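Quick entry between incubations.
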Amino acid sequence: MPVPDRQIEERLAEAGVRYTAGRRHVVSALERVDGPLSAAELHLEMGGAVPVSSVYRTLAVLEEAGVVEPHHGARGITRYEMAEWLAGHHHHLVCIECGAVEDIELPEPLEVELERLVGQLSASASFSAGGHSLEVDGRCARCR
Amino acid sequence: MPVPDRQIEERLAEAGVRYTAGRRHVVSALERVDGPLSAAELHLEMGGAVPVSSVYRTLAVLEEAGVVEPHHGARGITRYEMAEWLAGHHHHLVCIECGAVEDIELPEPLEVELERLVGQLSASASFSAGGHSLEVDGRCARCR
DNA sequence: GCCTATAATGAGAATCATTATCAACCAGCG
DNA sequence: CGCTGGTTGATAATGATTCTCATTATAGGC
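Done. Structure below.
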């Protein structure tokens, strides 16, 4: 599922930043897995190719450009994954034991219901709704 | 909406811990507001009556006993709210600007759909599902 | 009411993820 | 070639959270 790098390149160009080797590394690592990764996990996933401090900065740049999205988990750890316009809309299974996150998709009819609800909230006066995500807590296979 | 302290007292007793003044303070502060609060916010909400380090410990104890539940937000900040069996099932509006969280309830039919979905996931082999929460991102009235 | 074992507290140190800093580096361009 | 501005990496700084430990409060037994 190699996301056309062109789209990312364009987006970064619009943001006025370069698509350097280090940034490509991070993006490709994020594309390899099917759930969000933290800066430290990314550092490992890339075999230490990109230093931790650069991973953080790269993630900030990519988030700013709308290429990746953050997911806040237990222990104050923030994990990132490819933005929805690149990876498709999905939801999360979150392990309450180890914090691992797995992506899932909802059956179409339910998703439609959710979209409608979020739309209604948007219309409400006190909150301007954007995206949404269903977070299901539980225990993953390893922590069972 | 003063939750009968009795229930909390019992739960804590089962967990083998005391329901002390400091812990009552924290619980009553959490009951006063309608969204999750961080340790620092709780400390302020109580006018400094309970020192920050005690707030953290108290929250850990209450979470362990199942009286409160954590909500992980931006900037590595964890906010707590009364557990669902005490406060009722609900979902969250999360401000992407300031991180504030507001509670909402879903229309019954949609909630039923969600329950069914989560039940199905539970049946799946790789993940043992527990609770769930719909997180809607957006901008709150103040950050609009 | 008084004592004692044990849980709980408070102040500060320690930890860990994240962010900021800054000098060295690299790409494109005249 | 040498300049200019974005980029990098090592390290220091920050901020939330956790740990430590001496002190204090509490529930029972007397």
